[in-house]
């Protein structure tokens, strides 16, 4: 099923007619034609009509489809009368989807955009008060991950006639502040619409941010409830359907020349593939570049799946959650080409992993590239890789380096196969790696077809190392914000974006208990998920970290928490999921899990499987140091020992070498150093 037909299916499910796919192919969002005439609309009606008019070229290159796949909405007194009525009028061209939690529905919208590599997106509307502030965590998540979502929270009355209105937060020193001002540091663009005419500038600005590779992120338009209902004479051509063009910066020729000069000096180069490779649709360009020049590729959490898992030059995950192959190569590389990554601490091992290397940071956003003392090439990943190809023709990494990378990568693939095919021993609980193996064995082509969704706990580390991603987008792990509760809601958004793929949400019991309401939404929308819940009876990941820092097991596993005379509850996740409308069962071992997964794949609606797992065991292969501050003073000898090890790591980092190649910058690039 293609994307356009899925959009039509969503519309039809709500009793609407299919969306129009006609548009002006040469129209530009920011160059609107002027044909005269006005149309009187409320602010809310105009906003919804404008969103419904935005188009994007379809993925297959034939025709166009709506830029916005729909609007998630939970109505309240701050949006039901204004934007609610407007959404009803346009439900045939802009489907409205109801959810059960505001944060969760925003996660779904964000995941929808991520699954579309930022080429399509959704909007989210809430009432004022808790409806709006429930979006704050999701706004931060979208900001950290550079993902587009349009947030439309209701706001207080501009007139202040009923001041204070129900749910209004009052600032004792500033009468112009509402709860929505909390979105300002969490948004890439924020505006409060205090007059209908303001939409003429606010909406094009919002679309520009949402579709710009450098500034992409959440946009918040706060909508005062009285202004939502106010009418104004809008120019009719403001609502002409138009094809949005996505903006991505092309590289400067002098930056390309400088990057090529650095690469030609390198004998042991390494590529770090980040999310920007996927968002710029540069996977093919990356594969061509790596093979033409014999450069091994490592992957961040956001960049995993940019190169097929079995590509001879794919060394796997990099960093704290990385493979032994990738980290060994990073440790010895003399030049790192970081593409579309902001080089956060899990990738760099808290800035200890490739300190000896000359770093070339290729990124659409200069802020994200200005890390690790690297030389910056501000550009779209695909455009930059294409620009590098010509000048680097004939250049190749040291042959022994390429051969070593291929040998290490093949060895890591063998390790992954061994880890994910280990038989379960009697009386021993499985761990995350065992479950990952069972999931992938349950479908012979899962590496190509399945999309795995996760966000927090131990699983992102295990998935980063062990999941076999066969094509771009097969790995969907939110690890920029590592937000517990994203998983099921995110899975819903992925399924809406990719209805023809099996979407498998893997999460821990902690994340499930934190946010599970969108199981009911997935059933209601007919967006089938397979949800695998690993029950280790608490926050196993943080429990291990707590003890690694010398702390006593405390307040993480349920047995180590304060509890009343009834003791710690046994939670039946399968029964709970059935109560939300899903099919569900509990697997007692890996064999039962594989059988349950077969039933889940054959099911027509969301299917939840729970299995008990070991909270202590993890994959020992791979990994790298991660800086977590340990108390300098403690009565516990375990904490004092942990601090001594921490101090030694800090000293080692301080003594790390500075790459000689990074010191003198080419004259053309001095402004980037």
From TrEMBL:
CDD domains for this protein: TPP_IolD, TPP_PYR_POX_like
Domain Thiamine pyrophosphate enzyme N-terminal TPP-binding: 72-168
Region (Disordered): 1-36, 654-673
Record domain Thiamine pyrophosphate enzyme TPP-binding: where: 456-610
Domain Thiamine pyrophosphate enzyme central: 256-388
InterPro entries (alphabetical): DHS-like_NAD/FAD-binding_dom, Myo_inos_IolD, THDP-binding, Thiamin_PyroP_enz_cen_dom, Thiamin_PyroP_enz_TPP-bd_dom, TPP-bd_CS, TPP_enz, TPP_enzyme_TPP-bd
Cellular component GO terms held in the UniProt record: acetolactate synthase complex
UniProt keyword Ligase present: no
PROSITE patterns (UniProt xref): TPP_ENZYMES
Sample GO molecular function, one term: magnesium ion binding
GO biological process, one term: L-valine biosynthetic process
Record field: compositional bias (Basic and acidic residues): 1-10
Keyword Hydrolase appears in the UniProt entry: yes
Ranges of biased composition (kind: Polar residues): 11-24
Keywords: Hydrolase, Thiamine pyrophosphate
Enzyme Commission designation: 3.7.1.22
Lineage: superkingdom: Bacteria
Amino acid composition bias (Low complexity), ranges on this chain: 654-667
Annotated NCBIfam families: myo_inos_iolD
Similarity remark: Belongs to the TPP enzyme family.
The protein's name: 3D-(3,5/4)-trihydroxycyclohexane-1,2-dione acylhydrolase (Decyclizing)
Gene: iolD
């Amino acid at each position: 099923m293609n994307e356009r037909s899925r959009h039509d299916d969503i519309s039809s499910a709500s009793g609407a007619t299919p969306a129009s796919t006609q548009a002006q192919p040469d129209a530009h969002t920011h160059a609107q034609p002027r044909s005269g005439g006005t149309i009187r609309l409320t602010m809310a009606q105009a906003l919804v009509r404008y969103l419904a008019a935005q188009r994007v070229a379809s993925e297959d290159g034939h025709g166009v489809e709506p830029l916005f796949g729909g609007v998630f909405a939970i109505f309240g007194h701050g949006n039901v009368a204004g934007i609610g009525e407007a959404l009803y009028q346009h439900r045939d061209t802009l489907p409205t989807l109801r959810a059960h939690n505001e944060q969760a529905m925003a996660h779904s919208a964000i995941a929808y955009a991520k699954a579309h590599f930022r080429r399509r997106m959704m909007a989210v509307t809430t009432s004022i008060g808790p409806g709006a502030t429930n979006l704050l965590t999701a706004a931060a998540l979208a900001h950290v991950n550079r993902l587009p979502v349009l947030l439309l929270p209701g706001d207080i009355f501009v007139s202040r006639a009923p001041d204070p209105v129900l749910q209004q937060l009052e600032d004792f020193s500033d009468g112009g502040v509402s709860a929505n001002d909390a979105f300002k540091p969490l948004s890439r663009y924020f505006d409060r619409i205090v007059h209908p005419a303001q939409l003429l500038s606010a909406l094009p600005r919002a679309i520009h941010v949402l579709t710009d590779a450098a500034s992409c992120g959440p946009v918040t338009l706060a909508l005062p409830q009285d202004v939502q209902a106010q009418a104004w004479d809008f120019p009719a051509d403001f609502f002409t359907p138009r094809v949005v063009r996505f903006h991505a910066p092309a590289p400067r020729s002098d930056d390309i020349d400088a990057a090529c000069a650095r690469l030609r000096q390198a004998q042991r180069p390494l590529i770090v593939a980040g999310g920007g490779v996927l968002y710029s649709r540069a996977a093919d360009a990356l594969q061509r570049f790596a093979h033409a020049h014999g450069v091994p590729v490592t992957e961040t959490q956001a960049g995993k799946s940019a190169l097929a898992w079995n590509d001879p030059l794919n060394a796997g995950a990099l960093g704290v959650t990385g493979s032994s192959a990738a980290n060994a190569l990073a440790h010895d590389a003399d030049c790192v080409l970081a593409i579309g990554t902001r080089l956060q601490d899990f990738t760099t091992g808290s800035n200890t992993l490739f300190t000896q290397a000359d770093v070339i940071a290729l990124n659409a956003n200069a802020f994200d590239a200005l890390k690790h003392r690297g030389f910056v090439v501000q550009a779209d990943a695909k455009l930059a890789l294409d620009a590098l190809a010509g000048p680097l023709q004939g250049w190749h990494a040291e042959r022994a380096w390429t051969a070593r990378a291929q040998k290490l990568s093949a060895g890591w693939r063998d390790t992954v196969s061994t880890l994910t095919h280990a038989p379960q021993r009697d009386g021993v609980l499985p761990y995350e790696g065992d479950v990952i193996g069972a999931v992938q064995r349950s479908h012979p082509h899962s590496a190509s077809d399945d999309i795995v969704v996760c966000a927090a706990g131990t699983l992102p580390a295990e998935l980063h190392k062990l999941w076999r991603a066969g094509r771009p987008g097969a790995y969907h792990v939110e690890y920029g914000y590592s937000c517990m509760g994203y998983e099921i809601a995110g899975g819903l958004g992925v399924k809406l974006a990719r209805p023809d793929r099996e979407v498998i949400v893997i999460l821990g019991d902690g994340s499930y208990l934190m946010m599970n309401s969108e199981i009911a939404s997935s059933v209601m929308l007919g967006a089938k998920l397979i949800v695998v819940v690993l029950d280790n009876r608490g926050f196993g990941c943080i429990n291990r970290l707590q003890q690694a820092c010398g702390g006593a097991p405390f307040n993480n596993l349920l047995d180590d928490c304060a509890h009343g005379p009834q003791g710690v509850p046994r939670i039946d996740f399968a029964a709970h999921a059935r109560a939300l409308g899903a099919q569900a069962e509990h697997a007692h071992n890996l064999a039962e899990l594989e059988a349950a997964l077969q039933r889940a794949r054959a099911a027509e609606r969301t299917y939840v499987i729970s299995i008990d797992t070991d909270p202590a065991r993890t994959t020992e292969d791979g990994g790298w140091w991660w800086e977590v501050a340990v108390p300098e003073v403690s009565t516990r000898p375990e904490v004092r020992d942990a601090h001594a090890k921490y101090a030694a790591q800090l000293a080692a980092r301080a003594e790390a070498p500075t790459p000689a190649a990074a010191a003198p910058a080419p004259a053309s690039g001095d402004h980037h150093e």
